[in-house]
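Table S5 (text form). Sequence records supplied for joint modeling of the two-component complex.
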Amino acid sequence: MNDFQLTYKQFSECSILIEWPSIIDKKTLEDVLFYKEKLENTLVKEIIDIKSAYSSILISYNSIIENIYDRKSVLKDIYSSKISILSKPSTLWKIPVCYDEEFGLDLEEISIEIKRSKQEIITLHSEAIYTVYFIGFLPGFLYLGGLNNAINFPRKATPRLQIERGAVAIGGNQTGVYPCISPGGWNIIGNSPINFFNVSNPDSYRDTPCFANPGDKIQFYPITLKKHCDITTLAKAGVFQLESEVIRG
Amino acid sequence: MVKVINAGFYTTIQDLGRFGFQKYGVPVSGVMDNYSARIANALLGNEENEAILEITMSGPTLQFNCNTIICVSGADFSPKLNDNPIKINHAIYVKEHDVLSFDNPKYGFRCYLAVSRGFQTEIVMNSRSMYNEITSQNTISTNDELSILEHSVSSERKNASIRIDLNHFTTKKLEAFKGPEYELLTKNQQQQLLLEEFTISKDNNRMAYQFDEVFENTLEPIITSLVLPGTVQLTPSGSLIVLMRDCQTTGGYPRVLQLSDAAINVLSQKVTGNKIHFKIKE
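The corresponding structure-token record, covering 531 residues in total, follows.
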């Protein structure tokens, strides 16, 4: 830890951007999340929100930054401090996905283009364990790393105007689930009936609107159309229990 | 209660925003022009975060079913109470059955209506600001009934009024910080960005504003990173996109500038065809 060259920039009146070298990898993610947790524990009273992405953190303070040098030096001290924090264990979430042709609108095209059967694509997509890097784009949209390169498939030249809620899609070397209806350019291979974002019932799933946190793992498992229908009903009623296990390291 | 007789072009309930949920991908939202919105709440003696109506381009028609005090601020859309013109930026007593309507827009693009103690619409994640998929409605609709608190007309007089600085609506200058990718621009591009005037395109809404002018761009997209309202992005096709209050929390285009909060307020009052220029805030 702490062997990264970080840069600190004032971003707006009330926010500071911290950047790691611009790469996507787990070592960077670990350092980003470790630093973020230390900041959350130390700056409690001064901050509105701390967001992270692949290789950056954005701190929004609740007051205007008067002296940027002081703020930066406080942040640098926190980065190099040896304070030990009780790291939250990460969780592996098992996400049901129906890959039936009713939902998998682009499976056929991908299958022809990459010369693999639909079943092979489904197996490759559902056997991998993905890492949640951060949440962005839409409320509850998880940025996932770990797509098998064999099913890497470029985004559509023209995005669809409307992608259904729960659509499971591949965009280049990324995969993800659209948590609500949205325009989008990724290739749709299935649909998940669960809620990725809970407005009405924020008490379910660990008191936050999203069950998953950056650093968690995700694995998809195939379900039938019938099962998709059943889980949709349960999820709407707010009683569907996601399978999960706590993982270490 | 306020009955919506006609919802107008695009009318929403907003407060100062939904803070603390951006890490879950939730937009900040909130009034686009908080300079004007704060004036309306202040003149009524409201808390600054009370929910108010944000009225875009043309006004709604509203009927009050109880007594209250109102204040209209921001853009001047010629407000009328029972067909009689009323002053903007002025606290006005309203009685049960009174009808508030609007006429010709005189200046600005977003007008605010505050009521005593604020609109009492649903609170989702600490905010009443409407946003699709977060609140149950993303705009108000004709026939809606908006809950407010009765303010009995007493002997107490509210004559609070102020003269606002019209420069807020006419200035072309948008103050901005250098964005994280500003230094990646060539000297020519930096000059173009700071010396040229940009024309507001027809693509502008609560999520983003765009301009007609296209920029010569050689910058590659960045790996997805963090953005805020006011972030100015440069797309691969050379368009500038200014993110506004309802913007996403992350983005993959180079961030060349970051507007000051005051500049976001100024831009919120601009309409298609208006011109602006950027100035680096020292």
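Note: The domain at 7-80 of chain A is CATH 3.30.1360.40 (Gyrase A; domain 2).
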